Amino acid sequence: MGAYILRRLLLVIPTLLGVMIVNFALVQFVPGGPIEQIIAQQQGEGNVFESFDGSGSEVSATDVGSGNDTYQGARGLPPEYIAELEEEFGFDKPPLERFLNMMWNYIRFDFGESYFRSASVIDLVIEKLPVSITLGLWSTVIAYLVSIPLGIRKAVRDGSRFDTWTSGLIIVAYAIPGFLFAILLLVLFAGGSYWQIFPLRGLTSDNWDQLSLWGKIVDYLWHITLPVLASTISAFATLTLLTKNSFLDEIKKQYVITARAKGLSEHRVLYGHVFRNAMLIVIAGFPAVFIGVFFGGSLIIETLFSLDGLGRMGFQAAVQRDYPIVFGSLFVFGLIGLVVGIISDLMYVLVDPRIDFEKREG
């Protein structure tokens, strides 16, 4: 097992490097870099993208970091000022040199400072991380608490009317986009057009510091109800059907027939024998499910509910071309995703020692 883990850890390096190379290369062809953002603000245009109206008379973005000193939106600004901006952002160097410098810093977990927020990237990530973890963790826990009992009941009553109509509901829930369900919740329960039951934005109320401990807990749960529901809706289908199919596979095996023949109760058979075997794949997949919810739904949900988390910060950084945040977040998320993949494999071994990845590879 040690050799397998070592191989997987070594594979993290070229995989992460490939991800960074592809994204860095693509950025070189994206119009409207940070220098043009500053130029647009200096000339009172607010945002460089506001002038992409198809007329060709305003700012025409150049490739970021391409080495071209001509910025068509910079007419009237001294060339020395443009040169200072390029030197400040590092765009006076060739792209290859900038990439190598960036990766060397990232290896040492030095992600630099944001171009527009006057704060280090690592401090911003730490500040926004609790919001995204809140959404991801609560959504994953609720999905497991609902999907496992429901999947077991569907397996026990396979083919019944209960199994049929619950499958229909699960498929419909899976087909509904998360952002559309979030908008529906806002309209219905956050004062959009009907009831003002839940708050529209934020994780806490303005008077949070004045509340008692119990009041803080209630206020926190009150605020996260709608965002968690919106980010959880699509996670039920996969987990429920996975649980059901795992139970069905185990129920048909010989040891279950033998247990029933010995006179054991159905509850003892299901939860004393079938459960621990059927749940191996479901429990072992917890880290991967959490990361999927954490990465997949954070952007849209955080934006719609005005939650100041990593997803919203990454979106704003991409719009502003705040590259330290964009690439720093990409590096951290990529590294986390790859490490979680290894942790998922270790979870399989922990819950079922019979699994041996080294023999399977051989």
UniProtKB/TrEMBL annotation:
<keyword id="KW-0472">Membrane</keyword>
<feature type="transmembrane region" description="Helical">
    <location>
        <begin position="164"/>
        <end position="190"/>
    </location>
</feature>
<dbReference type="InterPro" id="IPR000515">
    <property type="entry name" value="MetI-like"/>
</dbReference>
<dbReference type="InterPro" id="IPR035906">
    <property type="entry name" value="MetI-like_sf"/>
</dbReference>
<feature type="transmembrane region" description="Helical">
    <location>
        <begin position="325"/>
        <end position="351"/>
    </location>
</feature>
<comment type="similarity">
    <text>Belongs to the binding-protein-dependent transport system permease family.</text>
</comment>
<feature type="transmembrane region" description="Helical">
    <location>
        <begin position="278"/>
        <end position="305"/>
    </location>
</feature>
<dbReference type="Pfam" id="PF00528">
    <property type="entry name" value="BPD_transp_1"/>
</dbReference>
<keyword id="KW-1133">Transmembrane helix</keyword>
<dbReference type="GO" id="GO:0005886">
    <property type="term" value="C:plasma membrane"/>
</dbReference>
<feature type="transmembrane region" description="Helical">
    <location>
        <begin position="9"/>
        <end position="30"/>
    </location>
</feature>
<keyword id="KW-1003">Cell membrane</keyword>
<keyword id="KW-0812">Transmembrane</keyword>
<feature type="transmembrane region" description="Helical">
    <location>
        <begin position="133"/>
        <end position="152"/>
    </location>
</feature>
<feature type="transmembrane region" description="Helical">
    <location>
        <begin position="220"/>
        <end position="243"/>
    </location>
</feature>
<dbReference type="GO" id="GO:0042884">
    <property type="term" value="P:microcin transport"/>
</dbReference>
<dbReference type="GO" id="GO:0055085">
    <property type="term" value="P:transmembrane transport"/>
</dbReference>
<protein>
    <submittedName>
        <fullName>Inner membrane ABC transporter permease protein YejB</fullName>
    </submittedName>
</protein>
<keyword id="KW-0997">Cell inner membrane</keyword>
<feature type="domain" description="ABC transmembrane type-1">
    <location>
        <begin position="129"/>
        <end position="348"/>
    </location>
</feature>
<keyword id="KW-0813">Transport</keyword>
